[in-house]
User: Which sequence fits this backbone?
């Protein structure tokens, strides 16, 4: 167990340094914080009537798209930098545990997205957003982004272990994110699609922004968290198993 | 003769090919025994199966048939992997780390002891002539410097079996001398070394025994001195001459 912690910690440090030393990663985090945290700034402009509603919707959509895109891009950067370094086969050849590599990568994603989500919420606080900037808003934003980033990291590793092609890896991860957002649709369609809904985590629910504004309660949050945890554990296990069985 | 530390027996490996082509056999009934303190070269051109053999030893590729062991532990097992040090043909180093960080991180990750002595890292950086570059990022290293760092990484934890994939590729004559010194140092402390190369004249200097491969089959094997001691080619005769003769004999057989 101690070795697992040490190995995972070293992979975390290695991946984290990769993010901190890559200007594009720092730039991505900055852009995301500005984009997702800037809502209150634009809300201050009073256009009035239908025009304002339209602008508000466009602004919200842009924020979501930029936020999710950056979460995916950062996760991909972590995955691909390790993949391209060729360190994984060398580590596995020496008896490294696949699970420690996956855990290290995932911890990096968690840390980066944590900084990003917290920065975004902090900016909202500074800009004077009422309810959204509160403790619930911070928790909700953090949870939503983390689930997205974790899914990308783990499914990417899992699918990558079969394909060994970064391009396919990227496609698969975007597909997974889309799957998450398609969950409500799968629930509506039911039948054959229902199993998807059973597996998909509840980050679509997190995205509804209902909890921070008091529409949903603690019980809903716990249910969503439990679903997401089970899903992510399964994905993590698949990712580590896929890496361990991969041929190089 | 002492018991071999590395044994492969009857290893067969083939890969699926796209477009409905028949499976490509890259190793066929391959056997290998290496004792402690020996340097064995798996030699042949690209596609001869030497890197695949190395990856099978490492557990990175699984054979369709055959078995192998390292110090009694089955190949691919954690116990077997923990005894090996591996230098890949390329890659295996994080470009964003400095030379010192790369070795320290690797050592901490893989050391049986939880805390790795930084003195060990400093020793190996000095040993491969990279002390001055300890604070530079690996991404700024020349190919030769990366090769030396990868070699230090492979040897850092004093493995029982050292596997070097094309260690001469892109290395200047000074680098080859350094490699030879380090390999001899390893065998001197009782480690077994297996290397692959298509540069036969360079491998000839370093290897005690060689296995000459062509398209997954063994053309010839034995001590370098025995193989080059034949009389078919006029002297001075080298492993490249032996390979050409064995290839002609093997392909016409």
Assistant:
């Amino acid at each position: 167990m101690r070795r697992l912690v040490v190995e995972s910690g070293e992979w975390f440090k290695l991946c984290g340094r990769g993010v901190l030393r890559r200007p594009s990663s720092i730039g991505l985090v900055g852009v995301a914080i500005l984009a997702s945290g800037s809502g209150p700034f634009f809300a201050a402009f009073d256009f009035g009537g239908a025009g304002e509603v339209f602008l508000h919707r466009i602004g919200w959509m842009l924020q979501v798209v930029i936020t999710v895109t950056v979460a995916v891009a950062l996760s991909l950067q972590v995955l691909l930098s390790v993949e391209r370094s060729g360190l994984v086969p060398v580590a596995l050849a020496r008896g490294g545990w696949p699970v420690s590599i996956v855990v290290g990568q995932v911890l990096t994603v968690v840390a980066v997205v944590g900084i990003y989500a917290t920065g975004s919420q902090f900016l909202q606080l500074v800009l004077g957003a009422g309810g959204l900037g509160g403790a619930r808003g911070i928790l909700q934003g953090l949870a939503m982004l983390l689930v997205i980033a974790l899914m990308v990291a783990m499914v990417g590793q899992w699918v990558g272990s079969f394909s060994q092609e970064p391009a396919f890896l990227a496609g698969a991860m975007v597909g997974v994110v889309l799957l998450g957002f398609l969950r409500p649709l799968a629930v509506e369609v039911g039948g054959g699609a229902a199993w998807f809904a059973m597996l998909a985590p509840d980050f679509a629910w997190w995205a509804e922004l209902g909890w921070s504004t008091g529409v949903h309660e603690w019980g809903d949050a716990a249910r969503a968290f439990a679903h997401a945890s089970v899903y992510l554990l399964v994905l993590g296990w698949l990712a580590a198993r896929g890496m361990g069985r991969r041929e190089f | 003769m002492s018991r071999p530390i590395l044994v492969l027996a009857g290893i067969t490996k083939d890969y699926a090919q796209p477009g409905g082509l028949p499976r490509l056999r890259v190793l066929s009934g391959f056997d290998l025994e290496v004792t402690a303190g020996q340097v064995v070269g798996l030699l042949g051109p690209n596609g001869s199966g030497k890197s695949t053999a190395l990856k099978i030893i490492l557990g990175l590729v699984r054979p369709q048939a055959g078995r192998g062991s390292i110090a009694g532990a089955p190949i691919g097992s954690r116990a077997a992997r923990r005894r090996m040090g591996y230098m890949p043909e390329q890659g295996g180093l994080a470009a964003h780390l400095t030379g010192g960080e790369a070795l320290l991180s690797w050592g901490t990750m893989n050391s049986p002891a939880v805390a790795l002595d930084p003195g060990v890292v400093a020793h190996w950086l000095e040993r491969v002539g990279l002390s001055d570059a300890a604070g530079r990022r690996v991404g700024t290293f020349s190919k030769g410097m990366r090769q030396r760092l990868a070699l230090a990484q492979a040897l850092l934890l004093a493995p029982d079996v050292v596997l070097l994939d094309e260690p001469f590729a892109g290395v200047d004559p000074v680098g080859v001398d350094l490699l030879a010194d380090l390999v001899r140092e390893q065998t001197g402390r009782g480690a077994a070394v297996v290397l692959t190369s298509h540069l036969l004249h360079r491998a000839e200097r370093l290897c005690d025994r060689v296995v000459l491969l062509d398209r997954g089959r063994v053309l010839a094997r034995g001590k370098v001195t025995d193989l080059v001691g034949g009389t078919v080619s006029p002297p001075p005769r080298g492993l490249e001459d032996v390979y050409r003769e064995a290839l002609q004999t093997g392909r016409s057989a």
Notes: The interface with chain A takes residues 55, 58-62, 78, 81-82, 84-86, 88, 90-97, 101, 105, 108-110, 114, 137, 153, 163 of chain B (CB under 8 Å). The mean pLDDT of chain B is 90. The longest strand of chain B covers residues 4-15. The beta strands of chain B are 4-15, 24-35, 39-43, 65-70, 73-74, 84-87, 161-165, 192-197, 209-214, 217-223.
